[in-house]
Every structure is written in C-alpha cells, then in structure tokens.
Amino acid sequence: MKIDLGYIGAIVARNSAKKPSVYEIKDPLAGQQVEVIRNGQAYKLTISDEIKQIQGMMAIPMEKFFHVENADPSDIFSYRPRDQWLVFSQYLYESKYFDSLSNEEVRKVESILQHITDGVDSLSPYPGINLFGISKEQQHSYEAHLELASSTVALQHFSDTFLSGDVKKGFDQLIQDYVRHNTKIAMNHQSVEERFIAARAKIRPLNAPLTYQQSRELSMTNKLGKTVYTHEEIESVIKNYQEMFESIQNEEDLSRVLAKAKEQLLSFATKGISPRDIDYQLARDFVAQRADDTFKRIENYWRMLLQKK
Questions:
Q1: Percent of all residues in the chain with a pLDDT value above 70, rounded to a whole number
Q2: 162 within 8 A of 253, measured Cβ to Cβ
Q3: Domain extent at residue 73
C-alpha cells in the first residue's frame, strides 16, 4: 500500500471518484483568445492548455504541505503521524470494504478509527498536520503506555469483529506496523510537566515561604520527579494493559478492565513512593486527575466498538 497524502477520508474519496479527473478539466482560460497590439499591429493569441502545466509547477508538494518530507518509506504511519486513522481508512477504501456501506455507515466506521488512534496521534513528536484531532491535553508518560496498549487491542477487536479474509489479513499487518511506529514514541514520551517536575526535583529547594498546601505538593511532585523506570518495566506495564483489554467482550467487561487498569496505572506512576509515605495518597490523586481524560477517551471508543457489534 502506498500512502496517498491527498486522501482525507472515504466519503471525500467516494465523491471525488464520481467527478472527472483534474487532468480532464480544462482551465477556464484555456482556449480563450486575447487581442494584443504590437508595433501598431493587432494580433489575436490563444491561451493553450499548457497554462495548467505552469500552474502545476507552482503547486506546493504534498509532502512539504503536510510537513512529512522526512517520512520513512519503510514506516507508512510516519506519513500520517497525527492522523493515523487515515492509513487504516485508506486501506479499507482501496480494499473496497466500504463499497457495500452507506455514507452513514462509513462515517461511523471512520469515527471509531479516528477515536481509537487520536490519543496516540497526540504523542507524535513529528510536526505534521492534525486534520481531525480530538485530543487537546498533552498526555503524561503513564497515559501514553495505556493509550498504546488500549488502541492496539481496540484495532484488533475491530478487525476480528468486522473484517475477514484478505482484507482482515492486510488490516492486521497494518496494526503491526502501527505498533512498531508508536511503541518507540510511547516508550520515550514525557510531557512538558513531567520534564519540568523531574528537573525541579534535582534542584536544592530555595528558602522561599510556601503555604502548607504548596509545601505538600512540592514534596509530592519531587518524589514523582525522582522516580525512574527501566525499559523492561515500561514494556511490562504495556503488556499488562494489553492483556487486560484483550479480555473485553462486553460493556460489563469494559467497566471492570478500566477499574483494573486505573489501579495498575496509579501503582506504576507512584512506584517510587511508599504507601506509608504522607504524600502517597496525594500523589495518587495527582496522577488520577491527569489521567482522567485518557480513561474517558478510552472508555468512549470502546463503547463505540461494543455498541456496533
């Protein structure tokens, strides 16, 4: 599959297919005659179709427009770093999966894919253009691990539920490409706030007057900032999340898994603070508040998936 940077969804592609090719459309100036005077003589000149070629030379290359000039040809998702759902949509469109679906059904499928990949899209360190992004808050590292695991399993659930044959086989391969593209990003991701807290934790505190609440929060965030995770620990927690989400078959399972995943996330994020520490509960509340949007987003797209079955 070759990525089409001009593809912005199946409905647009479906409508465009009904229209004549741009190469079949004559420029409104082409064929028109203009009269010019030269050395006192009147001449009539005809503007040819070559005007289109000149206009084409002036167009901005798609790669430059989407800021993906340095995309990796071996990594198809590097061409759509902030709209990865479009890779899956383009594949389904070119595989003719959408042919038997109405426009409304296509919109529902694309909406599911868009919501599933949106959280991971927001992690992208590459510039790109975010055409349809929903997520507005920058995620923390512990949210990124959860998003990668959940979105991967959700995409596989979509494939297992709605696809079959060669279409499913190709889609499953794209999921593996998606995992390969996003794993390194999620493994190394840190929010601006996390980087700030980690840097501040290394600095000797100033003798500045602080309120009791400010003092408590500084103490707690310093402990979070000093916590270090190994590569193996991050891989392990992502795998644990995946196994949790793989057990989802209905909405009752979803509620159970989300509660279990939340406890796993809180334990992982606060692993450097003892449960007996005075700041332990404050740290859990701090992390839970920041992860709340991510859990709501994950719950939303899983409900969309389960309700479509």
A1: 79
A2: no
A3: 10-20+63-308
